[in-house]
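Recap slide: Tc1-like transposase DDE domain-containing protein, sequence and predicted structure.
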Amino acid sequence: KILHKIAAERDEERCGDFQEQIIANFQGDSREFMFVDETSKDEHTWACHYGRAMSGAHAPLSDVFIRGDWYSLVAAMMVDGYIAAEVMEGSYDHDLFCDFITQQLLPAMNPFPAERSVIVLDNCCIHHNEDLEAAVQEA
């Protein structure tokens, strides 16, 4: 089900347009790109979702019952290292992610095609934010 959802969100035309822009405008030293991603950790994160057992038997699962504290991390990385990073208790949402980009990342950016001029994000739902897109376009 997850792969079907990801495949349904893929837009071949936009992907092709992006690839053409990279080929036409890429300077070759990769310093234009800033990669942003987030992750989270709690006491439950390490648990295995799949196990092994003999045919007809249930796979044993040993795990903690209480999740405990939940921490999230978002970071902006380049080939030279981190530009910005932030850790918080809880989870990121549209607004918190937008705040990270506008307050910590955009001030360190330059106009295209200079160094630090392209933000690369995955297709996470909190990245789909019209306010974030407008702030990046304005900057």
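DSSP finds four helices and four strands in the chain.
Residues 28-42+67-138 form a domain with the Nucleotidyltransferase; domain 5 fold (CATH 3.30.420.10).
(End of recap.)
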